[in-house]
Amino acid sequence: AQTIHQWPVAEIKAVGSPLSLGCTIKGKSSPNLYWYWQATGGTLQQLFYSITVGQVESVVQLNLSASRPKDDQFILSTEKLLLSHSGFYLCAWSGDGNTLYFGEGSRLIVV
Amino acid sequence: GDSVIQMQGQVTLSENDFLFINCTYSTTGYPTLFWYVQYSGEGPQLLLQVTTANNKGSSRGFEATYDKGTTSFHLQKTSVQEIDSAVYYCAMRDRGSALGRLHFGAGTQLIVIP
Description:
Number of helices of chain B: 0
Radius of gyration of chain A: 13 Å
Largest interface: A-B, 23 and 21 residues
Mean pLDDT of chain B: 91
Oligomer: heterodimer
Largest sheet of chain A: 7 strands, mixed
Distance between the termini of chain A: 38 Å
Structural class of chain A: mainly beta
Distance between the termini of chain B: 41 Å
Mean pLDDT of chain A: 93
Order of helices and strands of chain A: EEEEEEEEEEE
Helix content of chain A: under 10%
Radius of gyration of chain B: 14 Å
Helix content of chain B: under 10%
Strand content of chain B: over 45%
Structural class of chain B: mainly beta
Shape of chain B: globular
Low-confidence stretches of chain B: none
């Protein structure tokens, strides 16, 4: 069975500090990977997707970047956080490009 | 452009009430339609999906029919329970769009009072 793990579960960070969120998928070879962002009480907005190692496509940047260093790993990062980065970050995978399977999410509070 | 519209931000029901959550979509393509459910503090999980127009999807007592004529995909359940309390998202993927790109509606929070 496939599993998806996100880390950290939650973070409180200062404005201007760096951020790195991670996501690992086990049990699925060459998955399509996605980052979504959800403001508190808001809908889900796709940020990035990747169909293969080393290749990432940006949908909405929000002053964030993403990388896929390994087949099973997807990283979301920024060098300088803004207050507007607060929210819930969700990693997801898909095998067929149709159905998405989400991780448990990482909650970020920027102060 | 492609979009999904859910009008109700919050729905409050008592146990065993009938649930209806409105969802309409807009696209020029041939979409696959989804309902996702998100419990508090968790990531969304797939509730049901329908790929073909005029077909119905069902799961855990929830149903939705892909109505191409009215471009709707309303979610229904005959008798809700307290454990159904969650946020429900209607979503659409145009098969011609970027791989895996889903358009989500605004979400509807369902509160079921025991």
